[in-house]
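Fold it.
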Amino acid sequence: MFKKILFATSATEASDHAARVAFNIAKTYQSNLNIFHVLGVPTRGYSQVVVDVKTKERVDVDEDYTAWVTEEIKIYYEKYLDEPLDYTIDVAIGLPAREILRQAKTLQPDLILIGGSTGDEDDIVYKKSSVGSTLQKVAKAAKCPVLIVNRPAASFWGGLSNIVFGTDFSKTSDKAFDFAIKVAKALDCELSVFHALDITSLHTGKMLSQDEIEQQIRECLRKIRSRYESRLKELKGYSMDVWEGIPFIEIVKYARDKQADLLIMAHHSRRAPSGDIKLGGNVEQVIVRAGCPVISINK
């Protein structure tokens, strides 16, 4: 399923949850795993002097220092590397998001795997309720699916049996559904298609009656059936549901109720203003709260 995986890591505790998933996937599906670490940002221009993201010290990066960091990464992940694994370790300097995307362009992976915020930036308050800016930039521009593991609860990756696909009926969601179907077929999983009816914004300033809410739910279920059911019948099992409420909360609750092993969503919410997006509001909040890994699709 995933022949080539790019695991972007800070090689610190901030990436431990993502690391557990990255190594488990690579071993389960016998994937080639590229462990990629960006040392830090040059202090000026194209200078080789950087502030190391782990030690916070200014260092002059040369071949010896790069080799030392590579060895440190190997030692940090030695408990995973002791077992047979097809892997490579690469180190780069520069802006993390740009270097990760550059590495992805070179490797052409089937999947980019990344953790949540490292807390390296001045976002101590913000990071508690959202994902980091590096992740936002990578998820927005990546040409392959991006798997995010932001919580310890999401790091216990085993065999996949149930995937939840969250849709907002946008064109990007249709592309995400194509990927969800592909994964469900390849891994012989059940697929649950879910839409969260946003009752907070349907009628600004007006409280919807229960009859109106249930009518909207019926309409959304009809839309799911007409849009997706013909292809869902190709799977061993599937379900289709619509719940009302605050979308990101309902998606997280639904995934928990389904005991989902994986949650797949489109990168952008179709209702989010294009000039004010951080992963699309709902996707970002789902990533922060979900008890399973989340895959963001933007292409």
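The domain at 4-155 is CATH 3.40.50.620 (Rossmann fold).
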